[in-house]
Amino acid sequence: MLVLANVYWGLSFPLIKAIAFEHQQLLPGSGSWFITACMLAPRFILGAALLALWRHGALRGMTAREIRQGTGLALFAALGMAFQNDGLQYTSASTSAFLTQLYVIMIPLWLALRRRRLPPAAVWAGCALVLAGVAVLARFDWRGLRFGRGEVETLVSSLFFTGQILLLERADYAGNRPIPVTFVLFVVEAAISIVLVGVTAPRWADVPVLFTSAPWLGFTLALTLFCTVGAFTLMNTWQPRIPATEAGLIYCLEPLFASCMALFLPGLFSLWAGFNYPNETLTPHLLAGGGLITLANVLIQLKPLPPPPPGRRA
Q: Is-contact 165 105, C-beta < 8 A?
């Protein structure tokens, strides 16, 4: 199920770039923060509405712990996405992809400090393989790495994504139901995004212009259904059933799926919307990087980590 969530998140990369291209066609000269806010707000507003309609029965009897966890997850997710998207405007995509995946190291380090016990050798081997795979996949250039605004913001985003993953493993939230938690996450994230739109919009009159575009609406609907409702529901339901370290390794499949989808989706999106977003090509980097990431996940499944504490419920 978490691999499927990664498929949905992989889809989000070409969708987000397509939305950005369409946004620039509709409102030329828009700033990066305004574009980011206009991507986040609709997907979480619509996501909350869809969950309320689809699973309204599961939202009855929402507990204070579910609200507290959903709010915490929303804050981590909102800050992580905001810093990641803004940082991407000031650094290369390859550097951003590599630095974002550093949570695969941060999670076992944090758990080792908290538990005062080093993780098994299989975890460190898996982390090394994943980082090597992402570096190859993104064609990361160590010589070109400079710690400016983009790199610092991307590292900050990785810290927040680490917090999001670890919060799902907290034992005191073991009895929480995933649908109410996800609904609260969407509502809080939508509220934060609306504020961000208000702060970054040159004029409020610019916002309705986006809703006149069929491609912008179509891309946003796909981003909502698959990459928001689908991905977050799967993550919040299934991640608590495995250790956070293992989940962090599985989440590193995201750039592999993103690279595969970038081989054909950009051309299809361009045909529909009329912008120039070329397909990427199959390269040895994709095969080698994807192979290393896949090998890391096979390794961790062959030598599984201890399960979460008894009584954990998704």
A: no
